[in-house]
C-alpha cells in the first residue's frame, strides 16, 4: 500500500522507496515509519522515523510503499527480514 | 593547516565555526556557482565551513559543491559536527566521510538537549574516532577541539570505514551495530505541542500572516524609518553642501555619488532588520513550518514551499528577496522564484501607487493601491503558470524548535549585510552619478536648472512616440519612468519637478500599469545578474518591458472604449 494510505499515527514498514535521496536520509526498506500529518491540501506529508521527522511532498509519499504493522518499537528496523529491492 | 567542518544540515556547524574563528571570517564563493561558504582563521589554521550534506552522493548544488571540494581539495583534517539527537543520520555521513581517509574527529553537538544522555565514550570506542563534546558553558572548547584535530593530523591517523557502499548498506550496518540506545531531543515534545497550533491549516496560516505582517510593520513602518531617518537627513545635508561646489560637472559627480551612497545606506537599516528577523525564523526552526504551510499552493505553480519566503520578502525589497532565494536547493526553482520576485511590488513602489491612486480613485485611494498590488501578484502567478516546470520532490527534515543563538544571528547578519552592500553598492553608485549628470546637463554639456533642456529629456523624448499608442508619449512621463529604473520612489520626485501641475487622469491608468510591470530597479537587476546570470536578467527585462507595454496599451484602449 501507499504511504499516504496509512492513517494518522499509524505505523508501516517501508517496502519500496522511490528516490535515492530518501535512502540517504535513512528511509530504507524494512524501516518503520509513522504517518504524522499532512499539510493544507494534503501536501506535504509529515512522517516520523528513527526519532526524527521528515516532510515529503504528496506525490513522493504516494510513490513510497509500506505494509502496515503495529510494531511497538518505532523507528527500528527488523534485521531478520531480508532486504527488499529498491531503485 | 586546512580544516573543514562537515556535517548534516542543522548539526550546529555554524556555531562551531563561529566559536573557532570569532570575527576572523569572510564569505567565499566556489567559482562559477552562487553557493556561499565561510572561511575563517583560528591561529595559523584555515577553517572552512562547508554547506550541510547527508552523504557524498549530492542532490543539490550546495551538496555538489561541498562534495567536490572534499574530493578535489582534500583538507588536512575534518571536524565532523554531529547532532546527537539525530544520531543515525549524522553517523551515516560519518561513515561516508571515513571513506575519504582524512584525519577526523567528531564534534558532538546538542548533547545537553539529548534524551537519554549519550555515552560518547562508547561511541568513540565503537568508531575509533576521537569524540569531542560541545557544551555551551565550555569557553575552552575551541582550543581543545583544535588541539585534538591537530593531534590526529600530525599523527597521520585517519579512521578506517567499517562499511563502504550505498546509503542503504551504511544504514543497515548502523542499525545492526550501533551500541547506543535511541536518542531524541528533549524539545521534541514541546515542538509537537507548538506544531499542533502553528501547523494547523487555519490557525497556523493566520499566525504566519500575523508574524510576517508584524515583521514588515516593524521593518518598513515603525523601526526601519526610525533607523533610516538619520541617514537620510545626513545624506540630504551632504548633498546640499555639495551644491556649493562651483564646477558644475564636479558638483554633479559629487552629488550623484552622495545620492548613490545615500540610497544604499538609507535603506540599509531596514535591510538589516529584515535579515535579522528572517535569521530568527530560520534558526528557530519556524522557517521549515512556513514551507510546510505553503507547499501545496507553491507546488501548483511549479515551485516548492520554500519559495514563499523570498516572494514575501519581495514586498519589502527585491534585493534581499533575490539573495534569500539561495536557500532553494534546486537551480530551476531558484531561477523561477527570482523571476517572480519583481511582480511582488516592493516598498519603493508604494509612493508611486499612492500618487496615482489619488488621481484615479480620489474617494478610495486604498482600493486602487490594493488593486495594483493584486494585479502584480496575478501577473506573477500567470507567469509562473506559463513557465516550464520542473518537479522537484520536497524532502525536508523538520527540526525541533530551538532558541536562536545570539552569536550565530550576529555572524549571519554581518555576512548578509556585507554581501548586500558589495552587490548593490557599486552599481548604484555608478548609476546615481550617471543619472545626476543626465538630469543636470544639456546635450551641449552645459549646466541647466531646467529639466526640459537636459540630456534626460532628450533621451526620454526618443522613445516617446512609441508610447503614443499607450497614451504615454510625453517625455516628462518617460523621464520619470527612466528615473524609476534607478529607484522606484524617484518616479514621484521627478514627476513633482517636471509636472508640477499633476498628471492628466487619462494618462494615470496606463502609467500605473507600466510602472507596476516594467523592469525592477538597477540594484535589483544587478543582484539578479549575480545570482541568475546575464541571460536570465535580459530575459526578465524583455519580459517585463513587453508585459508593461502591453498592459498600458490594453488599458488605454479600454479607457477609449469605455470613454473614461
CATH superfamily of chain A: Ferrous iron transport protein A (FeoA)
Mean pLDDT of chain B: 85
- Distance from first to last alpha carbon of chain B: 74 Å
- The proportion of residues in beta strands of chain A is 25-35%
Q: Enumerate the strands of the largest sheet of chain B in spatial order, edge to edge or round the barrel.
A: 2-3-4-1-5-6-8
What is shown here, in short?
The complex is a heterodimer of chains A (87) and B (564). Chain A has helices at 20-24, 58-63; strands at 11-16, 32-38, 45-49, 52-56, 65-69.
Which helices and strands, and how do they pair?
The complex is a heterodimer of chains A (87) and B (564).
Chain A: E1 11-16, H1 20-24, E2 32-38, E3 45-49, E4 52-56, H2 58-63, E5 65-69
Antiparallel strand pairs in A: 1-2, 1-5, 2-3, 3-4
Chain B: E1 2-6, H1 13-21, E2 25-29, E3 36-42, E4 45-49, H2 61-72, E5 77-83, H3 87-98, E6 104-109, E7 114-115, H4 120-127, E8 131-133, H5 141-155, H6 167-177, E9 184-185, H7 188-198, H8 203-242, H9 248-284, H10 286-300, H11 308-313, H12 318-324, H13 331-340, H14 350-360, H15 365-386, E10 395-398, H16 406-440, H17 455-461, H18 475-484, H19 490-498, H20 505-517, H21 522-562
Parallel strand pairs in B: 1-4, 1-5, 5-6, 6-8
Antiparallel strand pairs in B: 2-3, 3-4, 7-9
Helix pairs in contact in B: 3-6, 8-9, 9-16, 12-21, 14-15, 14-20, 15-20, 16-21, 17-18, 18-19, 20-21
Amino acid at each position: 500500500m501507499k504511504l499516504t494510505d496509512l492513517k494518522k499515527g499509524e505505523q508501516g514498514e517501508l517496502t519500496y522507496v522511490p528516490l535515492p535521496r530518501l535512502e540517504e536520509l535513512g528511509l530504507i526498506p524494512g524501516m518503520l515509519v509513522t504517518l504524522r500529518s499532512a499539510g493544507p491540501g494534503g501536501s506535504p506529508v509529515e512522517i516520523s522515523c528513527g526519532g526524527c521527522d521528515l516532510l515529503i511532498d504528496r506525490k513522493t509519499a504516494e510513490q513510497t510503499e509500506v505494509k502496515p504493522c503495529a510494531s511497538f518499537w518505532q523507528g527500528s528496523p527488523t534485521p531478520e527480514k531480508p532486504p527488499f529491492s529498491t531503485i | 593547516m586546512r580544516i573543514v567542518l562537515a556535517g548534516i544540515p542543522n548539526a550546529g556547524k555554524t556555531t562551531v565555526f563561529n566559536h573557532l574563528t570569532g570575527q576572523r571570517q569572510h564569505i567565499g564563493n566556489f567559482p562559477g556557482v552562487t553557493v556561499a561558504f565561510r572561511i575563517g582563521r583560528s591561529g595559523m589554521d584555515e577553517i572552512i565551513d562547508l554547506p550541510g550534506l547527508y552523504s557524498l552522493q549530492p542532490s543539490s548544488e550546495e551538496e555538489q559543491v561541498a562534495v567536490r571540494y572534499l574530493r578535489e581539495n582534500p583538507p588536512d583534517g575534518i571536524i565532523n559536527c554531529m547532532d546527537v539527537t539525530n544520531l543515525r543520520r549524522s553517523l551515516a555521513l560519518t561513515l561516508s566521510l571515513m571513506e575519504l581517509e582524512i584525519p577526523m574527529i567528531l564534534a558532538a553537538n546538542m548533547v545537553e538537549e539529548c534524551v537519554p544522555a549519550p555515552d560518547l565514550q562508547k561511541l568513540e570506542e565503537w568508531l575509533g574516532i576521537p569524540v569531542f563534546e560541545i557544551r555551551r558553558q565550555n569557553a575552552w572548547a575551541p582550543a581543545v577541539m583544535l588541539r585534538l584535530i591537530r593531534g590526529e593530523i600530525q599523527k597521520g591517523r585517519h579512521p578506517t570505514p567499517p562499511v563502504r557502499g550505498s546509503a542503504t548498506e551504511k544504514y543497515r550496518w548502523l542499525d545492526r551495530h550501533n551500541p547506543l540506545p535511541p536518542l531524541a531531543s528533549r524539545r521534541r515534545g514541546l515542538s509537537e505541542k507548538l506544531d499542533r497550533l502553528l501547523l494547523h491549516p487555519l490557525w497556523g496560516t493566520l499566525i504566519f500572516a500575523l508574524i510576517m505582517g508584524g515583521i514588515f510593520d516593524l521593518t518598513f513602518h515603525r523601526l526601519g524609518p526610525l533607523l533610516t531617518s538619520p541617514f537620510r537627513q545626513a545624506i540630504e545635508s551632504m548633498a546640499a553642501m555639495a551644491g556649493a561646489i562651483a564646477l558644475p560637472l564636479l558638483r554633479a559627480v559629487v552629488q550623484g555619488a552622495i545620492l548613490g551612497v545615500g540610497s544604499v545606506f538609507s535603506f540599509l537599516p531596514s535591510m538589516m532588520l529584515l535579515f535579522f528577523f528572517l535569521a530568527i525564523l530560520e534558526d528557530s526552526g519556524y522557517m521549515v513550518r512556513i514551507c510546510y504551510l505553503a507547499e501545496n499552493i507553491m507546488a501548483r505553480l511549479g515551485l516548492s514551499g520554500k519559495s514563499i519566503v523570498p516572494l514575501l520578502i519581495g514586498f519589502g525589497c527585491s534585493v534581499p528577496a533575490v539573495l534569500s532565494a539561495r536557500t532553494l536547493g534546486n537551480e530551476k526553482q531558484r531561477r523561477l522564484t527570482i523571476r517572480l520576485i519583481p511582480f511582488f511590488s516592493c516598498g519603493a513602489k508604494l509612493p508611486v501607487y499612492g500618487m496615482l491612486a489619488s488621481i484615479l480613485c480620489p474617494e478610495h485611494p486604498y482600493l486602487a493601491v490594493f488593486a495594483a498590488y493584486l494585479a502584480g501578484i496575478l501577473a506573477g502567478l500567470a507567469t509562473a503558470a506559463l513557465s516550464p516546470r520542473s518537479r522537484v520532490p520536497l524532502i525536508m527534515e523538520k527540526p525541533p524548535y530551538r532558541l536562536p543563538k545570539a552569536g550565530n544571528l550576529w555572524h549571519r547578519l554581518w555576512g548578509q549585510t556585507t554581501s548586500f552592500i558589495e552587490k548593490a553598492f557599486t552599481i548604484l553608485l555608478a548609476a546615481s552619478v550617471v543619472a545626476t549628470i543626465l538630469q543636470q546637463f544639456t546635450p551641449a554639456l552645459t549646466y541647466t536648472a531646467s529639466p526640459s533642456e537636459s540630456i534626460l529629456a532628450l533621451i526620454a523624448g526618443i522613445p516617446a512616440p512609441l508610447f503614443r499608442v499607450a497614451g504615454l508619449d510625453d517625455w516628462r512621463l518617460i523621464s520619470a519612468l527612466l528615473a524609476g529604473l534607478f529607484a522606484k520612489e524617484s518616479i514621484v520626485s521627478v514627476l513633482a519637478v517636471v509636472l508640477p501641475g499633476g498628471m492628466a487622469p487619462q494618462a494615470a491608468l496606463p502609467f500605473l500599469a507600466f510602472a507596476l510591470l516594467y523592469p525592477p530597479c538597477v540594484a535589483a537587476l544587478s543582484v539578479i545578474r549575480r545570482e541568475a546570470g546575464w541571460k536570465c536578467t535580459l530575459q526578465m527585462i524583455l519580459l517585463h518591458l513587453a508585459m508593461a507595454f502591453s498592459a498600458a496599451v490594453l488599458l488605454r484602449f479600454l479607457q477609449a472604449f469605455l470613454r473614461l
